[in-house]
């Protein structure tokens, strides 16, 4: 037992030292996964910073390649850290995926606040998707490849409450409405070619953003 405890302590100490970025030049990464070069002030032991960099890098890689296509080495190179820290802090690639999912769930609380009209809630989700398309793209990869773990069933209590309040017509199913709204929010960043084909607009342009947001608001208000 003492030998096992000592071995665990040695592994923990070794992994912690990896959090200090070496001054020696790192091998040149591939063009697809540019390595982030930390500044002098960042060359120190900082687990919080390392976790943040790894999560950001993982979100970039997952959004671009999906869970299966993302490589641990590419994530580490993008973060500018040793890949062993992924196992040390998150238990591996799946741990990164699960932590990103958990943080997304927490962030939703600020988007769907009690008392905010449904069209405003949808506009907030759309703004977030257009500002940072990595989330919807990651979600699309998960659906196409079956990556990640199945979460709990979606809580429809808010949609049911909105139906009782008249925001959703009585003949409409709250779950189906939610799926349609989720699809509408994701469309510009998941299938941007469809936007160009149907509307003849650049999905990243301010003109499209203004038009689509306003039209989506009007459609949502019509649901009631």
Automatic annotation (TrEMBL):
Pfam families: TetR_N
Organism this protein belongs to: Streptomyces spirodelae
Gene3D superfamilies: Tetracycline Repressor, domain 2 (1.10.357.10)
Signal peptide start-end: none
Alphabetically ordered keywords of this record: DNA-binding
Location of region: Disordered: 13-47
Domain of life from the UniProt record: Bacteria
Entry keyword Kinase: no
Residues in HTH tetR-type domain copies: 48-108
Record protein name field: TetR/AcrR family transcriptional regulator
InterPro entries tied to this protein: Homeodomain-like_sf, HTH-type_TetR-like_transc_reg, HTH_TetR, Tet_transcr_reg_TetR-rel_C_sf
Family annotation (PANTHER family): HTH-TYPE TRANSCRIPTIONAL REPRESSOR SCO4008, TRANSCRIPTIONAL REPRESSOR
